[in-house]
Amino acid sequence: MNQDLILVINPRPVFTRIAIYQNYNILFLKDIQHPDQELGRFTHYIEQIEYRRDKILSELKANGICIECIQAVVGRGGLIKPVKSGIYEINDAIIHDLKSTEYGEDFVDLGGILAEEMKKIYPSMRAFILDPVTVDEFSELARFTGHPSFDKKSIFHTLNQKAIAKKHAKALMRKYEDMNLIVVHLGSGISVAAHQKGSVIDSNQVLDGDGPFSPERTGSLPLGDLVKYCFRSGKSEFEVMDMIQHKGGLYAYLGTYSALEVDARVNHGDEKAAKVFEAMAYQVSKEIGAMFAVLNSEIDGIIITGGVANSRWFVNKIIERVKNMGPVHVYPGVIELDSMAQVTLAALRGEEVILDYK
Amino acid sequence: MQACTNHILVINPGSTSTKVAVFQGGRSMFQQDIVHSEEELSKFEKISDQYEFRKAIILKVLKKNGVDLKCIEAIMGRGGLIHPVPSGVIRVTEKLKHDLRNSPMGEHASNLGGLIADDIARKLHNAVAYIANPVVVDEFDEIARIAGHPLFERKSIYHALNQKAIANEYARTHSKAYEELNLIVAHLGGGITVGAHKKGRVIDVNQGLDGEGPFSPERSGSLPIGQIITACFSGKYSENEIRKMVTGKGGLMAYFNTNDVRQVKTWAEEGNQKAKLIFEAMAYQVSKDIGAMFTVLSGEVDAILLTGGIAYNNDFTDLIANRVNKLARVHVYPGEDEMKALARIGTRVLLGELQPIEY
Fold it and tell me: Is the same domain home to B189 and B315?
């Protein structure tokens, strides 16, 4: 009995999100929680591979899903070499680079690794990753920082950005490859990217680089003051990195990572929350303006997506500033899972080119 | 006696020279750039120690050129790194002098301007000493001050004197008041600042000194912060070395060991691909900041003004204009004339058009 199922794996710090798709339909979705007492014994997420794999297997079995019917498994793409956008069949080189720290470390690396682990047990499955975080289509101009010792890297929410942009193009009955779009992903990190005829030619570097502050990240900081802080605050490198990546932004000002909680506080008249939330919208708007110049001030639209896009107050603060540039479209939430399943299906049917990672 | 009124003495100390000029009614009657050799300046440990030395030379030059000090009614000194002030002209007081001497924001030769101006004014009957639009002019909206972490704050440090002078000139030639216009002004010099002028106030600008924004002939502008932190903790660099990478030896200096934009352009024309790309990248980054300031002004912008020394380079201003000319009309005001800008402010004070502010 071949049911042509596709398994999607998206690992998060404290849970693993899995989904089963058949054709375009989602049959099953689960966030497998990993409580502290279970994760506590691991010092590094790489040690969690077998633990998470077994959790996925038992979850599938417990829900009566025919594992043999799974034709392909697709994992969230992590930090590997800079690559072009698309779907990659997992090979030794991908696994090697996901496991090495050479291109950075993040939980998201587990996506491809877990997909490969499934394939090891069920060799008839094909294993893929789609649009890893390191997709790089930057123009040459976008790569310069302002000093040759530092380079600007392409690290942003490729998967969701591309998926939303393509969905939007489809809704307008146009081709993504014919459009110039600015896409804003509002998650725990925020990326604002310039999509020029199907390629992301510039984006802020969302991990530890630049751009607006976000629920958990500081974004750009005044350089001179940051240098002074590194040398004189007595903090370790780890502490400063942790501050800019995980303890900055909304969390640093308001003590919460939840933009929707901040939205609620604003609605209850909390002035400090309003000031900080508006400043975040202000910085996002400035980044949109910068990308407008990148696209020579000719765009087909601005797309706002991600979880924080559920806050109307926040989105309206952005729209007030950017509405002169072009039509603004809002798609709250993320469609990563749908996109992973759909592209995998297209790849299996020969409608999407499967790329080779070297 | 009638002709001998309303003279304005302008004193603008730079790192290696002191510019002096005398104006009447907006016209320059005398101007000289007094160059100080490294040998002369090396005798002084701190910039503030150069005070007597520079003052004596100025007086000597003025005397030698037959400048009648009795005619001078206002002495305009270039303002320095003091506490943040509103835009405008500030009378030199004891409190201001204290900060010019002690430089709470860091030493800079321009701090000497107000001190020397005051000293000369004291010897004269009619003259009053002022400084105007120092780099620390601060008219930010509250929202622009927030950085991304409460330990850090965005500050207003920029080429206020030239930005304001050019914005006012645009307003004058378009028969508008500066206070009724929304303008984006990009000062393109050794450092680059792009300011959002909203009805007479600069509500946001990249912090051009060591903060953020496009790279420039001598400064790096924004750099990826994670990589900066790694460099700071690497043990390979001292704090001062990293500061030098950001200010002084960043930007074109770092890529080509020259701060001469014309030279880089020449290499580009001779086929040097790297020179071509980096020349374009600098314009690209300036354009991005102009786009950012467009949203600061909610998309309502009367004009974009490009000024400073690099604005003499048409290829450079064209690269910017091609990206941003759909936002608003682009006007180019090459060069910067700090002496004229200071004199013009002095004239307005003498005419009673401009009220000096308290420091």
Answer: yes
Across the interface, of A150, A230, A276, the residue whose CB is closest to B146 is A276
Residues of B in contact with A240 (CB under 8 A): 229, 233
Kindly state whether residues A30 and A161 are assigned to the same domain. no
Which residue range forms the structural domain that includes residue A239? 157-326
Measure the CA–CA gap between A285 and A259, rounded to whole angstroms: 17
SS (H, E, C) A195-254: EECCEEEEECCCCCCCCCCCCCCCCCCCHHHHHHHHHHCCCCHHHHHHHHHCCCHHHHHH
Taking CB atoms and an 8 Å limit, are B148 and A207 in contact across chains?
no
pLDDT in tens, B78-102: 988 899 999 999 999 999 999 998 8
Q: Do the chains contact at A147 and B223, CB–CB below 8 Å?
A: yes
Largest Cα–Cα separation, chain B: 69
Q: Which domain holds residue B39?
A: 7-138+339-350
pLDDT of residue A188: 92
Q: What's the CA gap between B197 and B186, in Å, rounded?
A: 11
Q: Minimal Cα–Cα distance from A343 to chain B, Å?
A: 33
Calculate the average pLDDT of chain B.
93
CB distance B215–A144 less than 8 Å? Answer: yes
> Considering only CB atoms, which chain B residues are within 8 Å of A282?
143-144, 146, 296
Contact B98, B53 (CB under 8 A): no
The answer to whether residue B105 sits within a structural domain is: yes
CA distance to B7, B55, B130, per residue, from B126 (Å): 10, 19, 13
* Residues of chain A contacting B236 with CB distance shorter than 8 Å: none
Facing B322 at nearest CB: one of A207, A230, A296: A296
